[in-house]
Amino acid sequence: MAVYIPLHHKYRPQTFAQLVGQEVIRTTLGNGVRTGRIAPAYMFTGPRGTGKTSSARILAKALNCLSGDAPTPEPCGVCSLCQAITQGNALDIIEIDAASHTGVDNVREMIERAQFAPVQARYKVFIIDECHMLSGAAFNALLKTLEEPPERVVFVLATTDPQRVPATIISRCQRFDFRRIAQADMEAHLRQIAEREGIAITPAALTLVTQLAQGGLRDAESLLDQLSLLTPPIQPEQVWQLAGRVPERDLLDLVRGIYSESLITVLERGRALLERGWEPLQLYQQLVGFIRDGLIAFTAPEQRHLTALMADTWQELRALGQTVTPENLLQAQDYLRQSESQIRHTTQPHLWLEVALLGWWHLCQGKSGTAIPAAVVQPPASRLSRSQGGGTVTPSSVPAINKSAPTTPSSVPAITSPAPAISSSSPAITSPAPAISSSSPAITSPASATPSSAPDQIESDPIKLWAEVVAQIKKPATRSLFQDATLVACANQQAEIALKSPALLQNAQGKIKDVQAAFKQVLKQTITITLTAPKGEPPNGTPVTVIHPSVVNTPVSTPNHTPAPIHPPPDPVVAPSLPPQRPSLPEIPSEDGVMVAAQRLADFFQGEVIVPAEENEDF
Fold this sequence. Notes:
It catalyses: DNA(n) + a 2'-deoxyribonucleoside 5'-triphosphate = DNA(n+1) + diphosphate. One of its GO terms (cellular component) is DNA polymerase III complex. GO terms for molecular function: ATP binding; DNA binding; DNA-directed DNA polymerase activity; metal ion binding. The protein is of the alpha/beta class. It folds into 5 domains: 7-177, P-loop containing nucleotide triphosphate hydrolases (Rossmann fold); 183-243, Helicase, Ruva Protein, domain 3; 248-364, Up-down Bundle (Zinc Finger, Delta Prime, domain 3); 372-387 and 456-550, DnaA, N-terminal domain (GMP Synthetase, Chain A, domain 3, 2-Layer Sandwich); 586-619, no CATH class. It is 41% helix and 7% strand. It has a 5-stranded parallel beta sheet with strand order 2-3-4-1-5, covered by helices on one side. The N and C termini lie far apart (86 Å).
């Protein structure tokens, strides 16, 4: 039984004339051989399947063909040496796979072999495939030989990643960059193969094969070889299924469903694609590429060659432009770009792909910009004034402040005079204000309330704003520190950020400048930042809003002056009762790393650190 030869081996080019789509390289190498201007080293770079290794073998044949007395650009292909090169058993043509021969010892062995004269051929040719895989020491050992090679020795280095090849190596070679093969040239070549092999394939399916190959002729020939095993005639649907790609018709139907008003349609079409076995990440990436093709169809209708779409799909996509604008597609691309990381790294990609599709549909319906309640993003003073009808905050609406209550932190404004007497008609509050120790987190009190309009909101969604700010923080350590923080309020060029634990407050104080720079990148203005960290930690994910009553400073009253009675508002605001706080922990020195770590661990589990009595003095 004869051994089957794959199409990409059977139709491998054997002369420069058979090289597909590389006219400039074909002409340059042919003229160099014809005139006898043979370089000691060549470097062939380019994507896979574009003819680099095949060109190296053709060059070896052209230099050593026995049909003439000198090198020829048109090797005969029938002499003993041409046949030996084709079969890969010529003694003087040495092919080395650098991926499996990366060490310096392999290069030294090759250099030793280069010192000997050719046995059968005119030139000894060394073909080093994927040369970027060589180690640094191997490249250094090769430098001198490439610069001054022995007589009758030619090196050909092939690589798909020239950026990883040292510049000292590239400068010693003649470099040829192989480009992706044009679709028209590839389609003509595949049509010839199909006719010779008797493969019944429709023109639309053949065009689709060339588009899926993305400029790699070997990939196209391998796919055509697989398709030849299907029942003829071969249709585009069979190409999509065999290539493992989502059909562009299904992508078009999904996009139409997203821009319709039926949420059920989006769910049904998305679920149908997943149930047919498509991977969520693959479906997502092809959907992003399809949106890119849609932008080209909307803005450049005559440039279909820039995409990989069939003619009928291209026309239907252009018709979709009557209801969908390029701005809609750009907005969709930005939204999907933010969802890729979640789909790529999650353990439930099917779920998050459906969530992304539903979010895209929601965005198309104009509902994604729904404003959240104003109280979430407004400063405490403004929320307090709004709750009382928008008027001036009167002293009767806030608790009386005991004269003996200490107010030592620098962030709390000093109170130099007691609050004015409260009318007997207002609810009497006799308990003193809670004492604020020097170790408590700094909380900036809002300015005294005055009759003014509500502040302008910078961002209606503080969660989204905070995510954008955190993403703009340059230093990884600072970004990690503020990752779990919460943006409580942001208005009037002021922002209040709540940390999860008081233990993080001291470290965060020194990094405010980095956060301010991130705010400036997002909002294009300078923001004053206040850090808070309440001892009573809120539930995870719940924004914390710390409301401090405004204090109205008045002259110290004397027995000779009776303050004017103050009428309370119709509905006084009663502050909600706060949950009881845990007892204060013993002060932990900042230089004790063990205790600081223990305190952070206790805060995470909402516990406390207990130090044995006999060890208290040590800490």
